[in-house]
Amino acid sequence: MPEGSYKRLFTHFLAAGGDRLHFAAHSHHLWPDVAREAQLQAFDEAARHVDGKWEPIFGELWPRAAGHVARLLSLPDPGTVCFGPNVHDFLLRILSGLPGGRIWNVLTTDGEFHSLRRQMARLVEAGRVRQTIVPTEPFDTLAERFSSELAQDDFDLVYASHVFFDSGYVFEELPGILNEAPLGTVCVVDGYHGFLARPTDFSAAAGRVFYTSGGYKYAMSGEGVCFLHAPPGIVERPLDTGWFAGFAALEAAMPGQVPYPTDGQRFLGATFDPTGLYRFVAVQDMLEREGLTPLVLHNHARALSDRFLGGLERKRPLGLSAEQLVPARHVERRGNFLTFRRPDAGELKAKLWDAGVITDCRADRLRFGFGIYHDAADVDRLVARLEELAR
Question: How far is Cα 367 from Cα 360, in angstroms, rounded to an integer?
Answer without folding.
Answer: 6
